[in-house]
Amino acid sequence: MKLNPIIADRWSPRAFDADATVDQADLTLLLEAARWAPSHGNTQPARFLVGQRGDDTFRRIFDVLRPGNQTWAGRASALLLGARATTDERGPVPNTEFGLGLAVQNLALQAVDLGLVTHQMGGFDHEAAAREFALPEDVVPVVVVAVGKLGDADLLPEELRARELRERERKPLSEIVFTGTWGTPWSTGERSDHR
Question: Rounded to an integer, what distance in angstroms lies between the CA atom of residue 179 and that of residue 177?
Fold first, then answer.
């Protein structure tokens, strides 16, 4: 058994090619992938603001990032501010984090298929983002997604370069999947690394 390469090959680099662009067709496809994500009762709570490097929206999203993320995110081709709409015409929407998370995952996997990379960030000033983009009270900013083409890790600051080049790790299934009672590992009978 082998993990689907689109899942296995997805990662969150910080090294973006500052000369690369992502064309409108590819950005549209990424957002279409997000739009088709499952959500609670098909409420589709995911919302996105799109900035492309060089435009005003990109600059404004970049400006609300924490300084550590600003050291590398400006080289991305696009920055997307992902938010969750907490109400609709029927009232409060349940599980909006779930809906936005699935939308962002669809977007990230579609990016892999297109030969692009993404990096999701929670490290930004959420209140400043809400003010900057005049978000309604029922729309909550959650994540910024950098999108682009993989760049040279040697251009990153030393600490980030080391993180970029280290081997990817995941907790074993025995630490995250249980049966019977909490903490009792569920066993697949096989290795958990299907890559």
Answer: 7
